[in-house]
Amino acid sequence: LTQLFRPLDMLGWVYRTIRQGLIDMADMFRLMDTPVEVEDRPGAPALVVRRPVVTFDNVDFGYEEDRQILHKLSFEAPAGATVALVGPSGAGKSTIGRLLFRFYDPSAGRILIDGQDIREVTQASLRAHIGIVPQDSVLFNDTLGYNIAYGRDDATAEQIERAARDAAVLPLVELLPQGFDTEVGERGLKLSGGEKQRVAIARTLLKDPPILLLDEATSALDSRTEQDILATLKRVSADRTTIAIAHRLSTIADADIINVMDAGRIVESGSHFDLLRRDGLYAEMWNRQLSEETEVLAAE
Ligand code: ATP
């Protein structure tokens, strides 16, 4: 019987999650893989954000009891700043995003937004304040307009158009005879990786969150598309507190603070030039990526 109820429970949870307008996180966190671990405290108030400061304060965390992933991790993202997380694969970068969304709670330490412990506020209010632009955006089998307005039932046609313009989706829309009413997804128009990502950016713009979590695509976009997307993201993150998870260092070289992670710890922190001067892990990663890019250019 348990075997029957567990999938039903999961379906119920997925449904509630979708109802809360959270489906845009599915790509990043693989919804079905994410256990239901965290519940709102009874009577929890909503998060109130005046200054979107994000603080990780001595956070310990492991997915399994006998394997700790984050070790006394502390960092701050000041209001309006862009803070990058870089480091080798498996260092714990995406885990930080999952904790900020409260898919899991730390085993020790605290995560604060504008001084409020995120365990003490409702998850719906927490997630309403954070926009995600995931690595690989998944679209619904519906119209382009629906995909942009998703989670904002009250959006007007003007607001949708403005978000599309700011995310550089409008040139695409204008080429389509049915414009925003064009069906996209499996049964409709197939969009490229870059176009899908722009739709995700437009959706985030419409949500207008004070905090952004950017998860850089590992899948290669061609370099011109990548430059376009980066320029768009730069505009979008300008007035927001942004946490950017990056694989290619060139995309975050101008971040206000770069936190270099290794095996669940922040091992270096500073601006690009601070870190190059320090001649440690960041400088090593930077030089390696530079020589790889030079090799690629030489081969072309
Ligand atoms: P990448 O650059 O490859 O995306 P990352 O720095 O984002 O890596 P995380 O995804 O945060 O790394 O993973 C950190 C560690 O946690 C890894 O060792 C990974 O195997 C482990 N891990 C991630 N998700 C889970 C999970 N759901 N259950 C158990 N372990 C997990």
TrEMBL record:
Q: How does it sit in the membrane?
A: Multi-pass membrane protein
> In which broad location class does this protein mainly occur, judging by the first location in its UniProt entry?
membrane
- Out of the domains of life, which is the source? Bacteria
Q: Does the keyword Transmembrane apply?
A: yes
**GO cellular component annotations of the record:** plasma membrane
Keyword rRNA processing found = no
* Keywords assigned by UniProt, alphabetized: ATP-binding, Membrane, Nucleotide-binding, Transmembrane, Transmembrane helix, Transport
UniProt subcellular location: Cell membrane
The molecular function terms in GO held by this entry are:
ABC-type transporter activity; ATP binding; ATP hydrolysis activity
Where does the record place the ABC transporter domain? 54-288
Q: What is this protein called?
A: Metal ABC transporter permease
Organism in which the protein naturally occurs: Aurantiacibacter luteus
Classification lineage? Bacteria, Pseudomonadati, Pseudomonadota, Alphaproteobacteria, Sphingomonadales
**Which part of the full protein does this chain span, and how long is the full protein?**
287 to 586 of 586
